[in-house]
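Quick bug: LLM class flavin-dependent oxidoreductase output formatted oddly.
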Amino acid sequence: MSGIPLAVLDLVPISSGSTATEALRNSIDLARRTERFGYARYWFAEHHLNPGVAGTSPAVVLALTASATSTIRLGSGAVQLGHRTALSTVEEFGLVDALHPGRLDLGLGRSGGRPTERTDDAPPTTTPVIDGHTPNGLRIPPKFSFQRLLGSPRIALQRRLLQQPGAEAQDYGEQIDDILALLRGDYRSADGVEAHAIPGEGADVQVWILGSSGGQSAQVAGRGGLRFAANYHVSPATVLEATEAYRAAFQPSDVLDKPYVSVSADVVVAEDDATARERATGYGLWVRSIRTAEGAIPFPTPEQARAHHWSDADRELVADRVDTQFVGSPARVADQLEQLQEATGADELLITTITHRHAGLSWSSVAAALAKFAGCQ
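Here's what came back:
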């Protein structure tokens, strides 16, 4: 997989016993380090009402990070369009682009938007999955149902707090079209009125669509000839259908003449397998807090995680995420990343890593090791 670019996805996680201030400083420090090691891009996720995640506004965090870095591309993974307008999104990124031109990726997601058809009955992928694995060994677990999360009181409260009373999310495809038109400067309303986003119009940003399945996001990205990021680390069961649906729908555009795919992976790498497993100990408990709709807890210490009493239901709740986390020595993780790239045909890999400690984790050796084994330096 020599030459495959690596990128970073950062949630700005808060560790147990730490603060949002420390989390933000750690993220900026990590962005500086990954820039030095030649990573292609650094993205910030958007999450709300999570005690253990400080990444609530990608545009704000990437603006702060842009001032602390100089060359690495920075972006959103992803802006949640379900509670935003096309204009506010273009204006936010236009402001940052005005001071840091040519460095921004505008990653757009459907979260919080209108429900679409479920993909439980999606057709089989062309890549066969036998006993939960692709032919090259990549783990593809059974699908996880997000219905429990969608029906939780906390998610309903989040929606109410993020949207104006009575507001209804715009159709996702229409919203993407409006964003592209505002960026180009040729937006017209249904009755022919022009609108020009200043700053924003003409901003030199790369537009990405993020998706977890072969549904609307993959279709919108493909038909629009846009870059697509598929979500293995959150929805590993549907990564193949997502990438295949995108490629099947792809139509060449002024932006791309052929499909371009990034695929995410949750990674913990250390000097040896045992050290990596110890650093990843809290991951299952952290995922459990998300899957039970509590909201992501501050990332636990290994001792806190080992103290949790795991029921069979708990283990089943997080199994797909835990089983598909890449944990181990640089050589082991590089092999797993190669499996992922080969099975999905990814043009880039997007790495996300959460552990309890930032100081002492030796991010420099982690980043350097991954870049070396992926052929990025």
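Actually, after a second look the formatting is fine. The chain has 14 helices and ten strands. Closing.
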